[in-house]
Structure formats: structure tokens, C-alpha cells
Amino acid sequence: MKEFSPTSVIVPCYNSAKTIGRALNSILNQTMSVKEVIIIDDNSKDNTVVTVLEYKELFEINNINFKIITNENNKGAGYSRTIGIKEANNKYIAFLDSDDIWHPQRIEIQTNIMEQNRDIFIIGGYQKVLNYDDPNEVSSYLNSEISDVKFKYINKKKALFKSPTQTSVVFTRNDTFLIFEKGKRYSEDFLLWLNILFKGHKMLQVENYLAASFKANFGESGLSSNLLLMEKNEIDSILRIRKKYKKGIGDELIFMGAINFSLLKFLRRIIIVISKKK
Asked: By Cβ atoms counted within 10 A, which residue in 40, 66, 87, 217 is the most buried?
């Protein structure tokens, strides 16, 4: 019998009927099981809820508490995650997006690190991009073994220049201040990680691929207004942290540097997307 981690998994989903199954399977296939899975359907218009319900009995057979919550209106992933956090009944919280998957050792690795490092509040990790049309690539990832776990502390000021982790790899202690900014649909996760760090909590980054995605981080659907919205909201996140935590001229220079660096990254992304089109 598998050992259980005292963890609630939060999975927001919207029109995810084609991908939610593989995400849920990656939770079931963990080397260390979780205690609870909370699905928040963000008012999907496809068969997402029907697909999720097909897994309910399978999770319950494995002694995993399984909840499904449906938003009355589409509210965004951040809002949905906050709803899930409020429902979570366990010591730890792990996030998974409905179109991503976990490495089988993800929960075991992060649980062990958290249990052995009581001063750590949040753990991130690396996320690999896989080609879903290449079954050998996906199989190789899911059957790989992580034997050498490496991690490092995250510097809060360096985190301003680059988001310290992606959401599907985040593992955190359950706490009342874990709230994604209401109404913010882009960069809401970046803002929360920064808030945690600037409050003085410690964060570790596992330098192993604990999750995988099947699309690029940007530009997957071509150049669109989404890129601009992402950039506006990234800068908005930095400005919010600046307003709350700036203490002097040194901090001001760091925050301005982070904003300028963000703009340079945005220009680079546009160039990459245009090049892909050509």
C-alpha cells in the first residue's frame, strides 16, 4: 500500500474535457498518494464535468477524498484556486493545471523536502515541455526516475525578474493568506509567489522536472492580445509588490530594473512569435 502525503490537490479547469483525464491519471500514478483532490470547474461549456465524474469512484477506491465544485460563472483560474484552497483540509496544498501532468515522484519528493525543512513555506520546481504527439517522449518522461534531487533557495529580489516557478509544480503549506488576487486573470500566480517571499517566508526551487506541459509558455496560438495582457499584468504584479514593500532608493532601483527587464522579455517574445510565423 502506498504511503499518504497530507496533501490536498487543487485542479482548476475550464473546457478541459480533452486533457483533464491525463492530469488526473498523473495524480493517481504518484509514488506517494495524496489525501484529497479538489476539482473546480470554471463553468465549462464542454464535457469537462462528465469526464471528471468518471474518475470519482477511482479516486475513492484509492481512499482519496474527491470533491467537485462548479463556479456559477467563469471566474478565472486564480479565483478557482482560491475556492479550492478554502475547501482544502490538509497540511499541504499542491496545484495542477488541467492540461499539465506530474512526474510520478512529484508528491513524494516535495513532501519529503517539506517534512525535513520545517522553515520552508513553499516549494517550486521545473516544468518540462513535451510533444504529446510523440508517445515515446511522454512515456520516457513518465517512466524516468529522479534519483538525484537538487534544490536551492529562492532570492525574493531575483524572483522579481523571473517567476520562481510555474503553478503546476507548486507545493505549499496550507495557510489562510494563500489567496490569489480577486479579478486578476493573468500573472495572479506570480503575484502570490512574490507576496509570500516578500512577507519573509522561505521558498525552495527543486531543480528537477516535477511536472510537464504540452504547450510552450507563450506564443502557442500565435501573436495575440494575450501576450500584451500577460505583460501588462506581470508589470502590475511588480508594481503591487513595490507599493507594499519598497523601503528606500535601493529597492526602487531593483523594482525599476525588474519592470525594464520585463519589457525586454516581452519584446523578445514578440520577436520569437513573429519568427515562428515566418
From this structure: 40
